[in-house]
Design goal:
Blueprint (H helix, E strand, L loop, with lengths): L26 H52 L9 E3 L18 E7 L13 E6 L5 E5 L4 E4 L1
Antiparallel strand pairs: 1-2, 2-3, 3-4, 4-5
Keywords: Membrane, Transmembrane, Transmembrane helix
């Protein structure tokens, strides 16, 4: 008897193909992401500058209104306002010429008396007038006792 041995069959297994490694991001995709990121940062910077500028203006206007109310009260109680023309109260790093121990302006704000006599603040010919400015803004606000309004200069 002839026994024929069957050789072990080894089925041909095709080797697994190596996957091509694609880059995670293509240069075009990276460029688009870089452009969008830059636009977001630029937009944020512009928004921050615009809103901070208006915040400085709001602070100066608010401090001027409070100081005007204080001056009205002081005039009612004492018959005169505080300060002469050219004097100022400041919190912008420069020295104040009006010394009020219990009165402080917001940081960066200065208020200067620009016209009028403290004894006659409601004089229609020369009303007591004050201007306020924040050191980080170019806007100047002015309050006059004659009109009792704040205007922007």
């Amino acid at each position: 008897m002839n026994v024929r041995r069957n050789p072990r069959r080894r089925p041909y297994a095709k080797p697994t193909p190596k996957r091509e490694r694609k880059p995670v991001f293509t240069p075009v995709q990276l460029s688009i992401v870089a452009i969008v990121t830059t636009l977001v940062f630029v937009g944020g910077a512009i928004f921050l500058k615009a809103t901070s500028g208006s915040a400085y203006d709001i602070t100066a206007r608010h401090d001027l209104q409070l100081f005007a109310d204080f001056q009205k009260f002081h005039f009612t109680m004492n018959g005169t306002c505080i300060g002469e023309q050219g004097e100022s109260i400041r919190n912008d790093g420069l020295p104040s010429t009006i010394d009020l121990a219990d009165y402080t302006l917001s940081k960066g704000v200065s208020i200067t008396i620009v016209a009028g006599a403290p004894e006659e603040p409601y004089n229609s010919g020369n009303p007591f007038t004050m201007q306020a400015k924040h050191k980080r803004s170019d806007t100047v606000y002015e309050y006059s006792f004659a009109t009792d309004k704040i205007i922007e200069r």
